[in-house]
Amino acid sequence: MNKTVLTLLAHPDDAEMLCAGTLIRLAELGWDVHIATSVMGDCGSATLPPDEIARTRHKEATAAAELIGATYHCLGERDTDIIFDHDSNRKAIGLLREIAPSLVLTHPRLDYMLDHEQTHLLARSAAFAYSIPNASKLPLKDGSVVPHLYYCDPIDAIDHAGNVVEPTTLIDITDQMQRKTQMLACHASQREWLRAHHGMDEYIESMKRHSALRGKSANTTYAEAFVQHRGHAFPSNDLLNELLQNISG
Questions:
Q1: Cα 150 from Cα 147, distance rounded (Å)
Q2: What is the CATH number of the domain that holds 50?
Q3: 119: Cβ–Cβ under 8 A, 6 or more apart, which residues?
Q4: DSSP string, 118-185
Q5: Is residue 109 helix, strand or coil?
Q6: Is 92 a domain residue?
Q7: Number of alpha carbons in the 13 Å side-chain half-sphere of residue 159
Q8: In a 10 Å sphere around its CB, with 0-12 CB exposed, 13-18 middle and 19+ buried, how is residue 219 labelled?
Q9: Structurally, how many domains does the chain consist of?
Q10: Rg (alpha carbons) of the chain, rounded to whole number
Q11: Percent of the chain residues past pLDDT 70, beyond the cut
């Protein structure tokens, strides 16, 4: 098994909000960490034009990834325009073909915005397809397999209808919270955007509150929660729990 993990999430800063503590723990075990987004973040400002804020967010995401020795990738789609279609599916499959991850983290199927839900479809499709020899013209790397697939928590731990999501896996990130906070702080442009659009001026504190919420379920201070995809052809053993020896819900 390749010790390679890929997060394919929608926006720059999604990984830092939802699963960076787990990525840090995997990096500490010697895993090769890749953080990818489907979109460039070009709508992530109330004042800057699209291309300028996209460049800023790419720099911020790269800096955050480099803090833990990870690599940042972007599929290059536009905010609010991401859709599961032929071209975006080809990009996602190509990305996984190049990386050959054995572990993939993405958004849940039901979330508060469609950028997240469409990215879920891309990640789920690519996870199933990338190791099929004829699925891409790119060479097939050794160790390419159907990976373990997990869905990160939605924000506030609720789906689009307000239902609480029950995790299958809880990962203790108490010791990693300081580094996770440093990673999120790299996305400085987002404080102003969230204050303007969401009315939220506690960017880092909101992340800590969410992590503390899941920490209560794991009997620890901070935790990250996941739901494992166990459908046909996907591995069913809880790899994250096995690697990181935490409490499964």
A1: 10
A2: 3.40.50.10320
A3: 8, 9, 10, 38, 39, 82, 106, 107
A4: HHHHHHHHHHHHTTSGGG-SSPPPTT--PPEEEEEPPGGGB-TTSPBPPPSEEEE-GGGHHHHHHHHH
A5: coil
A6: yes
A7: 12
A8: exposed
A9: 1
A10: 17
A11: 94
Asked if residue 240 belongs to a domain, the reply is yes
pLDDT digits (tens, 9 = 90+) for 132-156: 999 999 999 999 999 999 999 998 8
Residue type, position 206, single letter: S
User: How far is it, in rounded angstroms, from Cα 9 to Cα 16?
Assistant: 10
How far apart CA 73 and CA 26 sit, in angstroms, is 18
Which residues in 2-14 are b (16+ Cβ under 10 Å) and which e? bebbbbbbbbbbb
Query: Would residue 249 count as lying in a domain?
Result: no
The C-alpha atoms of residue 243 and residue 93 are separated, in whole angstroms, by: 26
Q: Are 188 and 60 in contact (CB under 8 A)?
A: yes
Strand partners, 223: 172
Check if the beta carbon of residue 150 is closer than 8 Å to that of residue 240: yes
**Strands of 17-141, DSSP E:** 32-39, 71-77, 103-106
In a domain, 45, yes or no: yes
198 pLDDT above the threshold of 60: no
